[in-house]
Amino acid sequence: MLRRMVLSAAAAAAPCLRNAALLGPGALQATRIFHTGQPSLAPVPPLPEYGGKVRLGLIPEEFFQFLYPKTGVTGPYVLGTGLILYSLSKEIYVITAETFSAISTIGLLIYVVKKYGASIGEFADKLSEQKIAQLEEVKQASIQQIQDAIDTEKSQQALVQKRHYLFDVQRNNIAMALELTYRERLHRVYREVKNRLDYHISVQNMMRRKEQEHMINWVEKHVVQSISAQQEKETIAKCIADLKLLAKKAQSQPVL
Amino acid sequence: MASPVPVKEKKLMEVKLGELPGWILMQDFTPKGIAGAFQRGYYRYYNKYINVKKGGFAGISMVLAAYVLFNYCHSYKELKHERLRKYH
């Protein structure tokens, strides 16, 4: 029974854990939702230009407005005067030596504030304006940077659309290279085959030439061998007789 | 005394005079509540008179005047003896 109580207490104390256990480890991360509401602090509202109005440097304007319906414009001043006279007369405020030092101090303070208040205010305004300008610069620079990044990203995205040109060019180049190597190899094959065929042709020519020369030499040799000595003498005599005949003929020709 | 808006959430100016003791008793007097009240009061004064673009002297002068008054009240006991007249 004690254990049951402890379990029920634990279940009551941690309902989110129980739901988480039901969902399972992976599903818990998926179903958790963040940042659904509108951000309440952005944009931050700008600082008010002037503070709450204060009269005499001491009493807020709201007090005067509070008394206006009942006592009109002079009400609070009469109230103030009455209070001061009452405190003086009943010596709730005691006049001592410090009163005079207080009067001098406050007088001096009022004089300084009245005389130099405006210029000090302008100086402080200038300082804060410088600070604001610096921060504004940083903000503008950051915005510009991000804008440039956005433009770069857009142009990159536009470029992606034109990738197919690049791929076409590459494909054309590859096709041309393939064609070139094919033709080169074809030409080489042709040259090699022609080389082999030329070789065979020149071998045949050489063989034929050799055979011709050999035959001619053989025929000459045999003819020269067959001419005996006597035949040689008869041939030479006949040649001389023919030459004489020719000479006579040649002498008689030019006369005609 | 039965009003449509519950008494606790009304601001001080809207509480009727008869409901005042009830209202005071309903306020949060835990340490956290008191600290919260001081924080709220501080930020109300700060955001109205000091955290502005062109604040004036009034922002600190009111604080100094309140401090002067507080110190005067605290040392009234000793100042009583420096009165100029005994009977007023």
From TrEMBL, chain A:
<dbReference type="GO" id="GO:0045259">
    <property type="term" value="C:proton-transporting ATP synthase complex"/>
</dbReference>
<keyword id="KW-0496">Mitochondrion</keyword>
<comment type="similarity">
    <text>Belongs to the eukaryotic ATPase B chain family.</text>
</comment>
<dbReference type="InterPro" id="IPR013837">
    <property type="entry name" value="ATP_synth_F0_suB"/>
</dbReference>
<comment type="subunit">
    <text>Component of the ATP synthase complex composed at least of ATP5F1A/subunit alpha, ATP5F1B/subunit beta, ATP5MC1/subunit c (homooctomer), MT-ATP6/subunit a, MT-ATP8/subunit 8, ATP5ME/subunit e, ATP5MF/subunit f, ATP5MG/subunit g, ATP5MK/subunit k, ATP5MJ/subunit j, ATP5F1C/subunit gamma, ATP5F1D/subunit delta, ATP5F1E/subunit epsilon, ATP5PF/subunit F6, ATP5PB/subunit b, ATP5PD/subunit d, ATP5PO/subunit OSCP.</text>
</comment>
<dbReference type="GO" id="GO:0042776">
    <property type="term" value="P:proton motive force-driven mitochondrial ATP synthesis"/>
</dbReference>
<keyword id="KW-0406">Ion transport</keyword>
<dbReference type="GO" id="GO:0046933">
    <property type="term" value="F:proton-transporting ATP synthase activity, rotational mechanism"/>
</dbReference>
<keyword id="KW-0999">Mitochondrion inner membrane</keyword>
<keyword id="KW-0375">Hydrogen ion transport</keyword>
<dbReference type="Pfam" id="PF05405">
    <property type="entry name" value="Mt_ATP-synt_B"/>
</dbReference>
<keyword id="KW-0813">Transport</keyword>
<protein>
    <recommendedName>
        <fullName>ATP synthase subunit b</fullName>
    </recommendedName>
</protein>
<dbReference type="InterPro" id="IPR008688">
    <property type="entry name" value="ATP_synth_Bsub_B/MI25"/>
</dbReference>
<comment type="subunit">
    <text>F-type ATPases have 2 components, CF(1) - the catalytic core - and CF(0) - the membrane proton channel. CF(1) and CF(0) have multiple subunits.</text>
</comment>
<keyword id="KW-0472">Membrane</keyword>
<comment type="function">
    <text>Subunit b, of the mitochondrial membrane ATP synthase complex (F(1)F(0) ATP synthase or Complex V) that produces ATP from ADP in the presence of a proton gradient across the membrane which is generated by electron transport complexes of the respiratory chain. ATP synthase complex consist of a soluble F(1) head domain - the catalytic core - and a membrane F(1) domain - the membrane proton channel. These two domains are linked by a central stalk rotating inside the F(1) region and a stationary peripheral stalk.</text>
</comment>
<keyword id="KW-0809">Transit peptide</keyword>
<keyword id="KW-0138">CF(0)</keyword>
<keyword id="KW-0007">Acetylation</keyword>
<dbReference type="GO" id="GO:0005743">
    <property type="term" value="C:mitochondrial inner membrane"/>
</dbReference>
UniProtKB/TrEMBL annotation, chain B:
<comment type="similarity">
    <text>Belongs to the ATPase F chain family.</text>
</comment>
<dbReference type="InterPro" id="IPR019344">
    <property type="entry name" value="F1F0-ATPsyn_F_prd"/>
</dbReference>
<keyword id="KW-0597">Phosphoprotein</keyword>
<protein>
    <recommendedName>
        <fullName>ATP synthase F(0) complex subunit f, mitochondrial</fullName>
    </recommendedName>
</protein>
<keyword id="KW-0138">CF(0)</keyword>
<comment type="subunit">
    <text>Component of the ATP synthase complex composed at least of ATP5F1A/subunit alpha, ATP5F1B/subunit beta, ATP5MC1/subunit c (homooctomer), MT-ATP6/subunit a, MT-ATP8/subunit 8, ATP5ME/subunit e, ATP5MF/subunit f, ATP5MG/subunit g, ATP5MK/subunit k, ATP5MJ/subunit j, ATP5F1C/subunit gamma, ATP5F1D/subunit delta, ATP5F1E/subunit epsilon, ATP5PF/subunit F6, ATP5PB/subunit b, ATP5PD/subunit d, ATP5PO/subunit OSCP.</text>
</comment>
<keyword id="KW-0812">Transmembrane</keyword>
<keyword id="KW-0496">Mitochondrion</keyword>
<keyword id="KW-0813">Transport</keyword>
<keyword id="KW-0999">Mitochondrion inner membrane</keyword>
<comment type="function">
    <text>Subunit f, of the mitochondrial membrane ATP synthase complex (F(1)F(0) ATP synthase or Complex V) that produces ATP from ADP in the presence of a proton gradient across the membrane which is generated by electron transport complexes of the respiratory chain. ATP synthase complex consist of a soluble F(1) head domain - the catalytic core - and a membrane F(1) domain - the membrane proton channel. These two domains are linked by a central stalk rotating inside the F(1) region and a stationary peripheral stalk.</text>
</comment>
<dbReference type="GO" id="GO:0045259">
    <property type="term" value="C:proton-transporting ATP synthase complex"/>
</dbReference>
<keyword id="KW-0472">Membrane</keyword>
<keyword id="KW-1133">Transmembrane helix</keyword>
<keyword id="KW-0406">Ion transport</keyword>
<dbReference type="GO" id="GO:0006754">
    <property type="term" value="P:ATP biosynthetic process"/>
</dbReference>
<keyword id="KW-0007">Acetylation</keyword>
<keyword id="KW-0066">ATP synthesis</keyword>
<feature type="transmembrane region" description="Helical">
    <location>
        <begin position="55"/>
        <end position="73"/>
    </location>
</feature>
<dbReference type="GO" id="GO:0005743">
    <property type="term" value="C:mitochondrial inner membrane"/>
</dbReference>
<dbReference type="GO" id="GO:1902600">
    <property type="term" value="P:proton transmembrane transport"/>
</dbReference>
<keyword id="KW-0375">Hydrogen ion transport</keyword>
